[in-house]
Amino acid sequence: MIENVSIYELLTLTTILFFIGLYGFLTRKNLLTMLLSIELLLNASVINFVVINKYLYPDVLQGVYFSIFIIAVAAAETALAISIIINLYRLKTSVDVAETETMKY
Amino acid sequence: MDILTLFIVVPILTAIALLFTKGLKQARLTTMIGMLIQFGMAINLVFAYFKERAANDAIMVFTKDLMWFETFNIHYSIGVDAISVLMIVLTATVVLAGVFISWMLDEMPKEFFITLVILATGVYGFFISIDLFTLFVFYEIAVIPMYLLIGIWGSGPREYAAMKLTLMLMGASAVLLVGILGIYFNSNADGGALTFNILEIAQVSIPFEAQKLFFPMTFIGFATIGALFPFHTWSPDGHASAPTAVSMLHAGVLMKLGGYGIFRVAMYLLPEGTNYWSTFFIVLSVIGVVYGALAAVKQTDLKYINAYSSVSHLGMVIFALLMLNKTAWTGAILQSLSHGFMTALFFALIGMIYGRTHTRMAPQMGGLLKVIPFISMIYVIAGLASLGLPGMSGFVAEMNIFAGAFQHTDTFHRVMSILVISSIVVTAVYILRVVGVMLMGPIPNEDYKNLKTVTWFERVGIYLLLIPVIGIGVAPLWLSNMINDSILPFIQRLI
Amino acid sequence: MNFSYTIFILIIPIATFLLLGFFYNRIKPAVSGWIGVTALSVVAGLSYYTAYQYFFNVGKIDGKFQTFFGFQANWMNFTENLRIDMGILLDPISIMMLVVVSTISLMAHIYSRGYMKGDRGYTKFFAFLSLFTFAMMGLVVATNLFQIYIFWELVGVSSYLLIGFYYEKPSAVAAAKKAFIVTRFADLGFLIGILLMGYYGGSFDFMELNNPEGPAIMNWASTSFMGLSVITWALILMFVGGAGKSAMLPFHIWLPDAMEGPTPVSALIHAATMVVAGVYLVARMFPMFHFVEDGFALHVVAWVGAISSLFAAFIALTQKDIKRVLAFSTMSQIGYMMLALGVSKYDGHEGLGYMASMWHLFTHAMFKALLFLGAGSVIHAVHSNYLKDMGGLRKYMPITNITFLIAALSISGFPLTAGFFSKDEILVAAFEHNKAIYFITLFVAGLTAFYMFRLYFGIFWGKKKEYEHTPHESPWSMTIPLLFLAFMSIATGYLPFSEWVTADHKALHGHIGLFSNLGVIHWDMAGIAITAGLLGIAIAWFFYKKPTDYPAKVSAAFGRLYKWAFNKFYFDEVYLFVTKQIIFKRISTPFAWFDKKVVDGTMDGIGNTTVSLSKVIKGTQSGRIQDYAFAFAGGVFVLVLIVIYMI
Amino acid sequence: MRNEIILLVLILALLIFEIFTKPNQKKHIINIAVGLFFIHTVIGFFPIGESSLFGGSFRTTGLIHFYKSVLNIGVLIILLQSADWLRNKVAHFNKIPEFFILLFSSLLGMNFMISSGDFLLFYLGLELSTLPLVALIAYDSFNQQSTEAGIKLILSAALASAISLFGIGMLYATGGSLYFEVIAQNLQSSNLAILGMVFFFSGLAFKISLAPFHFWTADVYEGAPIGIASYLSVISKGAAIFILMAILFSVLPILSEAWKLVVYILAITTMFTGNLFAIRQKNMKRYLAYSSIAQAGFMMMGIINAEELGVATVVYFVLVYVFSNLGAFGVVQAISSQTGKENMDDYTGLYRTNPKLALILLLSLFSLAGIPPLAGFFGKFFLYTAAASKGYYLLVFLAVVNVTISLYYYLLPVRVMFLRKSDDAIPYFKSKLMMRAGLVIAVLGIFVLGLYSPLYNYIVELSAGVL
Questions:
Q1: Within a domain: A46
Q2: Structural domain that includes position A95
Q3: Shortest alpha-carbon distance between residue B91 and chain C (Å)
Q4: What does the domain layout of chain D look like in residue ranges?
Q5: Mean pLDDT to the nearest integer, B399-417
Q6: What is the pTM of this model?
Q7: Do C643 and D194 touch (CB under 8 A)?
Q8: Are B417 and B402 in contact (CB under 8 A)?
Q9: From CA D70, how far away is CA C417, in angstroms rounded?
Q10: Do A and D make contact, counting contact as 3+ CB pairs within 8 angstroms?
Q11: pLDDT tens for residues D279-306?
Q12: Can you give the C-alpha Rg of chain C in angstroms?
């Protein structure tokens, strides 16, 4: 609970964060920045959970724990993604998303 | 094992036995034995049926019922009445004849016969089913082998034809499926157990709204394989490309599933829907009859002529069914039988002619009466049967249809009946045109003088099909009585 | 009297057909000829015996000829009431027809043994003849409309097979096809008529339908269509079928072409027996024709008959092929029979036309068969059908000459020949009931005499031709039938026909029957007819006995009329136009096109559209992750919008 | 929990094996792993009582246990079919054990996901199943397509799980808990709940590859090793369907009107998308990918029933689909590992050289197309019944239209294999024992499952009372 800050403001923040992340994911050309955008998306959720937990259901810390797990999983995800991106870099010497368009239609 | 299940088991066993054969000789011998047994069983069934019928006046006899999927109340439920018995005899005859006609098939014979036998299994199963689900299952089993049969052993644009045929028929069957589901879910409006059993569904009355909705689906589903205009276009291409035995089986038997299904399922279970839609479908069927005949006039390829002629003849079956009276229905069944034997005969002959002259274009041939008199004479006879000459089966059937159609006194039915009757003249035109061009006249090609005469297996095939054509034509009484008895419960539901 | 043996009249020919048909390549020609002749002799014997029994012994009860059934079996049922039987009905006209058919058929058989000698299809020919005989016999003894229709069709098909007997000749094939299709087209009317009759008359059975007090006749007015009773329509439609078989206008076009068949066939089928089936049908249904709606349908019959006879006579004047002349003459004579029926009434003396028609049918069968067989004999000798290749044959072929002359006299109504008696009865009947038709008939009588003698003089007199092969008389197998029929062409005139064959089955006072009632001959009527006939003969004598240029002048004088008549009033062309240009080109071709392009095209189109749709949307799978992500996010939002606003 | 523990033990054992074997002996791990997994599968057949652990986070019921057995069978078949490929193509990378470890981990994730009783375990299971798969997809690190597929999947999956998480957050907000049971009790229908449901749904829709969340599918299948592609198409899809059903039916019944509409729309878009795209495909893997998308659309028809009948039909269909699809993938795998050919045109004339393979492919495709008497027909028919019983006749009608379209492309390989002849057809070869065993099991399943009704009755029994 933060003084003078209602849940609406926080949720607006997370929503904005969510859309920024989405926007980033849709527009960035670099795979790494796309990955960063994903983090933004995840962070929006994480904050969501914490906020909901804190403001609405403060008795049980479900949301908080969930957010910790999300952070952990996100780390694993990022690690895996980066390793594959590195592999791509090794093959194509580029981390541009345009390099991943050979398979289509 | 009961007398009907054997009809499914024997072909399956034949197919399994075929797996272990090598070469043409073993394959055809195995198939022949299997199908001969089947034929014998079919003949036996007729006698058994009469005997059973004398003691048992249920709608279906030899019934057997096994639970299959309890959740949906799906049963393996079988039984026959006179109509199915006759259809089974038709199937057994045509299949056996088909085996003889394919006696010299040299490309992958084993596979050919296996596929053929599977197809036959489906047809038998269809005719003995009382349960809509099994009926549908067997229907599809009967249709799908056509793809391989036409695609592998066919000629001409076989891939196209096979694909078209399969897609149209399976598409229709998909529509039919919706209809069947509709029937199923309305099969017990009062809240009892839903059922697929035809006889049980016939006991309840399905709500009118549902009948109105599902009748056309069921009808079109079946009518497509019965070559109802405008869903007939698979048939000319399919027949033209199919190998001989397959054309025989297809035109002779498979297309009959349509009329049979309409009769047994669409009309029987959805009587009010039938009345509601009958005008519309009568118009379609009449268009089919006239249009098929007229289109046949223009064709030069023998198989196309026959295919369009089938459209016309089977249009008559559907027309007759829609006339909703006993006479016309008897005619419809007789026409199914008659057309089955006759068209199979026709296709067999076309196959033989093609095998000798290597062309199916009527204008390229001539004077065949002189060089292959036996085949040519039978062709003339088949042609005469096709145009409804008295003494042949077609006449009996057509007369019943016309007589039935004339029982309606309103102008609409009258006009439609007269249009249908007119088609017999057109039939005469295209049949005689072919006979005149192909069998008569001068011989255009010196090679024709050395054509092989008919072989013994071809003779057997021909006689198998010719005898019923003439038999029905000469002495139709017992047959029509037999059919009449079985039609009664069905017609009573409609009037 | 038990007539059940009559079933053999049907069984023997069909058995012969099956025997010869199945073993056509194993039986030697000589043997098969004998088989045919023997079988037919038996059939003829049975027919004569039946006739004798019927007319002289058992047929008449209380002054009225009764109807007997030789055989009856249920063949098929349409409904409980409407059933089709197969049976043998014996009454005066059917027995008369039995005699005609068996006689002519036997003669044709005997004649064919000579005429067809050496032909490849000798056995087949006899088989087909037997088939025809069977079918024709079945037709005449039919007990109900459906049976008659069944055999009607069978006659048609045997006619088809026989016309197309020389199947390697394209013209024969075409002629056979034409004959079958034209008659089948007419049979369509017959069939519809039968069905209508079945449902409004309540039965197919002759006995029930033709009973003047029966429900069918009494209730004719119950339903009507376009101002006429449906029963009348049915009768007219049935007459359409009859007109088709009997080559009445406008279905006559097949008959001249049918002459492509072997000559015995022309004699048997297309002169004596099958072509009169239409007349027989009307006679068979006569009570209905007469009683329903005051005989409206009968008027149609009369006028069609009259016009056809006139029309055919005109054409016969101009034809150059002798068989075609005979064919048109046949058509003309059948017109006579039709009009005689048409003007007839039912009871007593009023039924004179009916009697006359049947009698003429009988005599005509004899002399027309004779004419054809004679023509066949001539053709056999000179190997041509054309009048221009003939002339002066009387020296070479004396028997043919004499018999042909007798037949020609008979058809021209020369006094004391058979044709004289029967034709004059027709004239009397026409005179009594319809003057307009009477004058047509009279005029046609003159024309008939003229064209027959044009033929006769043209063949046997006229210019002396040099023949490459000297023509010689035909063998005995061919001349015996000629002689026999020549005898019949005179003798049948002296039968007491009016006592035997009448509409109401009661004896009737004829006018010119020799043994029955010679005393009351109306010499005024006969005189006019004889004059007309003799006038025709005289003109022919004048024109054709020696080669002259009168014919050319006359035909030039008539100019266009001659040309029209020579071209058979362009009926063939009209039909050809209708079939080729309209049915084939304007209907069938578009139908085939429609099927290929539109119906099939639609089905293919559905498939092709699906495939091209698949090509169109392939761009969405662009391979770019961000596009996918956009679709994902977009999908979510669209779903949210839909769900929230729809619920 | 038995399943998971054994699986975990298996994974650990393999890890140890990996550590203590020399590189040239690692080949043997194939037999060992397959053998062990076979034992695991067999053990899995033994029934297990209902229980729940961790305060309800982890539940086991008969049906859930059955789900796991289905997945086990599928994985077993995949292992059998992949053995050849591992031995021939992967051996020199010296990372065979990794394959098993990762695959089993993923399976473990799925097991957790299926058993989950709250969103936390669900999420963990989901991620545990996805991440090892990504590694497996990018397994062939020298192959650019493989890498590309990996990137596509990880990025898309991350996006999907992020959006899904956002949705879970909303459900948490409205439902007041992460436990399914509590949510089911507390949840009220509101726009926020619907919003959360749709967001959450999209995450699973992504795994099931429902259009428009399906785009990754084709690309990933094409790039992935065939074994993994088949794993994706049956196991991962099956597991996601199972849990989706569980959550929709028992957690969100209050929103059923909303999610039925979603399911309705997605079913239609998915069927059409899958079928229309499949028509054009030349690469067999890609072709099967679209086919599997279309099949997923059909499964939605069972879900829309929203009753026990729906559960039973969907489970049955998935079971059938496992066998049918693995039959098809197996043949593709067999040919690919033998010749490296993966295009449909390469199959020309296959029947004349390799009749058995061609026949198996034919049967599998016919089963997928729903042609009796093969199991696929029964599966589809029951799905139609499930939808029609709720009056969704239009949906059923569209489905049958799609079946017709699908029949067209299912016949395409049949056409090239049977109808055509080719001089350079794939020459005859004899598959290894394991491959054959894999194919035979698949074919047996295709035949037996449909005709032998007690199996279906068993499923019905299991699904009774799950709601």
A1: yes
A2: 7-100
A3: 25
A4: 2-463
A5: 88
A6: 0.91
A7: yes
A8: yes
A9: 104
A10: yes
A11: 989 999 999 999 999 999 999 999 998 8
A12: 30
